[in-house]
Specification:
about 240 residues, 9 helices, binds phosphoenolpyruvate, about 15% strand, globular, single chain, alpha/beta
Length: about 240
Protein backbone atom coordinates (compact mmCIF):
# COMPACT_ATOMS: atom_id res chain seq x y z
CA UNK A 1 0.00 0.00 0.00
CA UNK A 2 1.33 3.46 -0.88
CA UNK A 3 2.10 5.95 1.88
CA UNK A 4 1.41 9.69 1.69
CA UNK A 5 2.94 11.96 4.34
CA UNK A 6 1.97 15.59 4.94
CA UNK A 7 4.91 17.69 6.08
CA UNK A 8 3.42 20.85 7.55
CA UNK A 9 6.79 22.37 8.44
CA UNK A 10 6.35 25.49 10.66
CA UNK A 11 2.75 26.09 9.64
CA UNK A 12 -0.59 25.92 11.49
CA UNK A 13 -1.57 27.00 14.99
CA UNK A 14 -3.69 24.79 17.23
CA UNK A 15 -6.99 26.12 15.89
CA UNK A 16 -5.79 25.58 12.32
CA UNK A 17 -4.66 22.04 13.13
CA UNK A 18 -8.05 21.30 14.70
CA UNK A 19 -9.91 22.74 11.71
CA UNK A 20 -7.86 20.59 9.31
CA UNK A 21 -8.48 17.46 11.37
CA UNK A 22 -12.25 18.10 11.45
CA UNK A 23 -12.39 18.67 7.71
CA UNK A 24 -10.00 15.88 6.71
CA UNK A 25 -11.71 13.28 8.93
CA UNK A 26 -14.77 13.11 6.68
CA UNK A 27 -12.61 13.08 3.55
CA UNK A 28 -10.40 10.29 4.94
CA UNK A 29 -13.53 8.24 5.51
CA UNK A 30 -13.88 7.86 1.76
CA UNK A 31 -10.21 7.13 0.93
CA UNK A 32 -9.15 3.52 0.94
CA UNK A 33 -6.06 1.63 -0.09
CA UNK A 34 -3.50 4.20 0.97
CA UNK A 35 -1.69 4.84 4.23
CA UNK A 36 -1.72 8.47 5.38
CA UNK A 37 0.47 10.26 7.93
CA UNK A 38 0.50 13.89 9.04
CA UNK A 39 3.57 15.66 10.42
CA UNK A 40 2.55 18.76 12.40
CA UNK A 41 4.80 20.95 14.56
CA UNK A 42 5.79 19.36 17.89
CA UNK A 43 3.10 20.98 20.10
CA UNK A 44 0.34 19.45 17.99
CA UNK A 45 1.45 15.82 17.69
CA UNK A 46 -1.51 14.83 19.85
CA UNK A 47 -4.03 17.23 18.29
CA UNK A 48 -3.18 16.13 14.74
CA UNK A 49 -3.92 12.47 15.45
CA UNK A 50 -7.05 10.56 14.54
CA UNK A 51 -8.74 8.56 17.28
CA UNK A 52 -10.19 6.25 14.61
CA UNK A 53 -6.79 5.47 13.10
CA UNK A 54 -7.55 6.69 9.57
CA UNK A 55 -4.13 8.34 9.58
CA UNK A 56 -1.10 8.31 11.81
CA UNK A 57 1.16 11.09 13.05
CA UNK A 58 4.80 11.82 12.29
CA UNK A 59 7.19 14.25 13.94
CA UNK A 60 9.34 16.45 11.71
CA UNK A 61 12.55 15.79 13.64
CA UNK A 62 13.79 14.42 16.95
CA UNK A 63 16.69 15.08 19.31
CA UNK A 64 19.98 13.22 18.91
CA UNK A 65 20.19 12.59 22.67
CA UNK A 66 17.96 10.45 24.89
CA UNK A 67 17.19 13.06 27.58
CA UNK A 68 18.90 15.68 29.70
CA UNK A 69 20.05 19.29 29.65
CA UNK A 70 19.33 20.10 26.00
CA UNK A 71 17.09 23.16 26.14
CA UNK A 72 14.63 23.33 23.28
CA UNK A 73 15.11 19.74 22.14
CA UNK A 74 12.35 17.13 21.86
CA UNK A 75 13.30 13.49 22.34
CA UNK A 76 12.15 10.53 20.28
CA UNK A 77 10.69 9.01 23.44
CA UNK A 78 8.54 12.14 24.02
CA UNK A 79 7.34 11.98 20.43
CA UNK A 80 6.40 8.32 20.75
CA UNK A 81 4.58 9.06 24.01
CA UNK A 82 2.33 11.48 22.08
CA UNK A 83 1.23 8.59 19.87
CA UNK A 84 3.38 9.28 16.80
CA UNK A 85 4.28 6.37 14.51
CA UNK A 86 6.89 8.04 12.28
CA UNK A 87 9.62 10.65 12.49
CA UNK A 88 10.98 12.57 9.51
CA UNK A 89 14.77 12.77 9.69
CA UNK A 90 17.31 14.54 7.49
CA UNK A 91 14.90 16.83 5.68
CA UNK A 92 16.97 19.10 3.42
CA UNK A 93 15.82 22.15 5.39
CA UNK A 94 17.29 20.59 8.56
CA UNK A 95 20.49 19.63 6.75
CA UNK A 96 20.91 23.10 5.21
CA UNK A 97 19.54 25.50 7.83
CA UNK A 98 20.46 23.57 10.97
CA UNK A 99 23.67 21.97 9.70
CA UNK A 100 22.57 18.38 10.31
CA UNK A 101 25.19 15.98 9.01
CA UNK A 102 25.68 12.24 8.55
CA UNK A 103 26.82 11.70 12.15
CA UNK A 104 24.05 13.76 13.79
CA UNK A 105 21.49 11.94 11.69
CA UNK A 106 22.80 8.50 12.55
CA UNK A 107 22.40 9.41 16.24
CA UNK A 108 18.87 10.66 15.63
CA UNK A 109 18.07 7.43 13.80
CA UNK A 110 19.29 5.41 16.74
CA UNK A 111 17.09 7.44 19.13
CA UNK A 112 14.09 6.96 16.84
CA UNK A 113 14.62 3.19 16.81
CA UNK A 114 14.97 3.03 20.60
CA UNK A 115 11.61 4.81 20.89
CA UNK A 116 9.93 2.49 18.37
CA UNK A 117 9.41 5.22 15.76
CA UNK A 118 9.71 4.43 12.05
CA UNK A 119 12.10 6.86 10.36
CA UNK A 120 11.15 8.68 7.19
CA UNK A 121 14.69 9.41 6.15
CA UNK A 122 15.11 12.16 3.54
CA UNK A 123 17.83 12.26 0.93
CA UNK A 124 18.34 14.36 -2.18
CA UNK A 125 20.82 16.31 -4.23
CA UNK A 126 21.03 20.08 -4.75
CA UNK A 127 20.79 21.73 -8.15
CA UNK A 128 24.55 22.23 -8.20
CA UNK A 129 25.23 18.58 -7.33
CA UNK A 130 22.82 17.43 -10.00
CA UNK A 131 24.47 19.62 -12.66
CA UNK A 132 27.87 18.22 -11.66
CA UNK A 133 26.56 14.65 -12.19
CA UNK A 134 27.01 13.92 -8.49
CA UNK A 135 23.48 12.75 -7.61
CA UNK A 136 24.41 9.11 -6.93
CA UNK A 137 27.48 10.07 -4.88
CA UNK A 138 25.45 12.52 -2.78
CA UNK A 139 22.72 9.95 -2.10
CA UNK A 140 25.36 7.37 -1.12
CA UNK A 141 26.95 9.81 1.31
CA UNK A 142 23.61 10.71 2.92
CA UNK A 143 22.62 7.04 3.17
CA UNK A 144 25.77 6.45 5.21
CA UNK A 145 23.73 7.57 8.26
CA UNK A 146 21.93 4.23 7.98
CA UNK A 147 25.08 2.13 8.31
CA UNK A 148 24.41 1.28 11.97
CA UNK A 149 20.67 0.75 11.50
CA UNK A 150 19.34 -2.84 11.62
CA UNK A 151 18.57 -3.85 8.00
CA UNK A 152 15.50 -5.86 8.99
CA UNK A 153 13.80 -2.79 10.54
CA UNK A 154 11.02 -0.99 8.70
CA UNK A 155 12.34 2.07 6.87
CA UNK A 156 10.86 4.81 4.71
CA UNK A 157 13.27 6.69 2.46
CA UNK A 158 12.06 9.95 0.93
CA UNK A 159 13.86 10.91 -2.25
CA UNK A 160 13.55 14.68 -2.33
CA UNK A 161 15.75 16.52 -4.83
CA UNK A 162 16.49 19.82 -3.04
CA UNK A 163 15.84 21.81 -6.21
CA UNK A 164 12.28 20.42 -6.34
CA UNK A 165 11.25 21.27 -2.77
CA UNK A 166 8.88 24.22 -2.53
CA UNK A 167 9.90 25.46 -5.98
CA UNK A 168 6.95 24.33 -8.08
CA UNK A 169 9.45 22.41 -10.22
CA UNK A 170 8.89 18.70 -9.61
CA UNK A 171 11.39 16.12 -10.79
CA UNK A 172 10.35 14.37 -13.99
CA UNK A 173 9.52 10.64 -13.99
CA UNK A 174 12.96 9.73 -15.31
CA UNK A 175 14.72 11.67 -12.57
CA UNK A 176 12.46 10.17 -9.90
CA UNK A 177 13.06 6.64 -11.14
CA UNK A 178 16.80 7.21 -11.38
CA UNK A 179 17.05 8.41 -7.78
CA UNK A 180 14.62 5.84 -6.38
CA UNK A 181 16.28 2.92 -8.16
CA UNK A 182 19.68 3.98 -6.95
CA UNK A 183 18.39 4.04 -3.37
CA UNK A 184 16.74 0.63 -3.70
CA UNK A 185 19.93 -0.89 -5.11
CA UNK A 186 22.06 0.70 -2.43
CA UNK A 187 19.67 -0.64 0.27
CA UNK A 188 18.93 -3.99 -1.34
CA UNK A 189 19.56 -5.72 1.99
CA UNK A 190 16.44 -4.08 3.47
CA UNK A 191 13.24 -6.12 2.98
CA UNK A 192 11.01 -3.49 4.62
CA UNK A 193 12.05 -0.46 2.58
CA UNK A 194 9.58 1.94 0.97
CA UNK A 195 10.79 4.81 -1.20
CA UNK A 196 8.68 7.97 -1.40
CA UNK A 197 9.11 10.94 -3.70
CA UNK A 198 8.93 14.53 -2.43
CA UNK A 199 9.27 17.85 -4.22
CA UNK A 200 6.43 20.05 -5.46
CA UNK A 201 3.84 17.26 -5.55
CA UNK A 202 0.40 18.74 -6.26
CA UNK A 203 -3.05 17.39 -7.12
CA UNK A 204 -2.23 18.17 -10.75
CA UNK A 205 0.95 16.12 -11.07
CA UNK A 206 0.31 13.36 -8.49
CA UNK A 207 -1.29 10.91 -10.97
CA UNK A 208 1.64 11.09 -13.36
CA UNK A 209 4.26 10.87 -10.62
CA UNK A 210 2.71 7.96 -8.73
CA UNK A 211 2.56 5.99 -11.98
CA UNK A 212 6.32 5.50 -11.52
CA UNK A 213 6.53 2.03 -10.07
CA UNK A 214 9.83 2.87 -8.37
CA UNK A 215 8.04 4.91 -5.69
CA UNK A 216 5.58 3.87 -3.01
CA UNK A 217 4.05 7.23 -2.21
CA UNK A 218 4.80 10.89 -1.52
CA UNK A 219 6.15 13.30 1.07
CA UNK A 220 4.15 16.47 0.49
CA UNK A 221 4.88 19.97 1.79
CA UNK A 222 2.89 22.95 0.50
CA UNK A 223 0.05 20.98 -1.08
CA UNK A 224 -0.64 19.14 2.19
CA UNK A 225 -1.76 22.29 4.02
CA UNK A 226 -5.23 22.26 2.51
CA UNK A 227 -7.47 19.26 3.26
CA UNK A 228 -8.85 19.41 -0.25
CA UNK A 229 -5.56 19.25 -2.12
CA UNK A 230 -4.10 16.71 0.31
CA UNK A 231 -7.16 14.51 -0.20
CA UNK A 232 -6.67 14.64 -3.97
CA UNK A 233 -3.03 13.58 -3.65
CA UNK A 234 -3.99 10.73 -1.30
CA UNK A 235 -6.59 9.60 -3.85
CA UNK A 236 -3.99 9.54 -6.63
CA UNK A 237 -1.73 7.39 -4.48
CA UNK A 238 -4.66 5.14 -3.58
CA UNK A 239 -5.81 4.55 -7.13
CA UNK A 240 -2.28 3.70 -8.25
CA UNK A 241 -2.08 1.06 -5.55
CA UNK A 242 -5.43 -0.54 -6.35
C1 LIG B 1 8.87 18.82 1.68
O1 LIG B 1 8.86 19.73 2.47
O2 LIG B 1 9.32 17.72 2.01
C2 LIG B 1 8.35 19.05 0.34
C3 LIG B 1 8.43 18.09 -0.55
O3 LIG B 1 7.79 20.27 0.10
P1 LIG B 1 6.93 20.70 -1.21
O4 LIG B 1 5.93 19.60 -1.46
O5 LIG B 1 6.30 21.99 -0.83
O6 LIG B 1 7.90 20.82 -2.34
Amino acid sequence: MNLVVANWKMHKTRSEVEAFVRDFASRAERIENVEIAIAPAFPFLGAAGDARGRWSVAAQDCGAERAGAFTGEVSAEMIASEGARYVILGHSERRRLFRENVETLSRKLARAREAGLIPIFCVGESEEEKSAGRTAAVLDEQIRSLDGDAPEAELVLAYEPVWAIGTGRNANPEEICGGARHIVERLSNRPLLRVLYGGSVTPDNADELIAQRAIAGFLVGGASLSPESFEKICRSAASAAA
